[in-house]
From TrEMBL:
Protein's UniProt name: TMM17 protein
Species of provenance: Gymnorhina tibicen (Australian magpie)
Pfam family, one: Transmemb_17
Keyword Cell membrane: yes
PANTHER family linked to this entry: GEO07735P1-RELATED-RELATED, TRANSMEMBRANE PROTEIN 17
Similarity comment: family membership: Belongs to the TMEM17 family.
Length: 155
């Protein structure tokens, strides 16, 4: 009975749970300060991004915890997809778009958050690969034993 969950991924999720509120507070505070000088479409984009990231991050962290600790492939796959598709591109947009008038503190917290997301994408991929291969092997062994029991005896 091999343990398939990943300790590095779980540690990253644990620290991400504590970092995310700090990231959110810093980002909202800086958004409040620079809001009057932003153009209208950047105002709309940033508010939409904050709402989207807040909701997605809560779901993403829950799926990561459940998928990794309970070794559930669908939840971990959902975590991986939510990390890879909406979260990472959004953080990279916030980090590299100079039209947003990025503050140095904002850039620093975005870099840390992007590092968390990048590490989690890689760690979750290898954890998923190991889980799927092990579960497939268990399934094949179970099927083999079931077929062996159904086979008629000699004579």
């Amino acid at each position: 009975c091999e343990i398939l969950s990943s300790l590095p991924l779980q540690m990253s999720l644990y620290f991400n749970v504590y970092f995310f509120p700090f990231w959110w507070l810093v980002t909202v505070a800086i958004l409040y300060l620079k809001y009057p000088v932003l153009s209208d479409y950047y105002k709309f984009i940033l508010v939409t991004i904050m709402i989207l990231v807040s909701l997605t991050e809560l779901i993403r962290l829950y799926l990561g915890y459940v998928g990794n600790l309970l070794e559930k492939v669908p939840e971990l796959a959902g975590f991986w997809l939510l990390t890879l598709l909406p979260q990472l591109p959004i953080i990279l947009f916030l980090l590299f778009n100079e039209g947003l008038k990025i503050h140095s503190l904002e850039r620093a917290v975005h870099i840390v958050f992007a590092a968390f997301l990048s590490f989690q994408v890689i760690a979750a991929f290898f954890t998923l690969k190991r889980m799927v291969n092990t579960l497939a092997a268990r399934f094949r062994l179970t099927e083999f034993h079931r077929l062996e029991e159904q086979r008629p005896g000699p004579g």
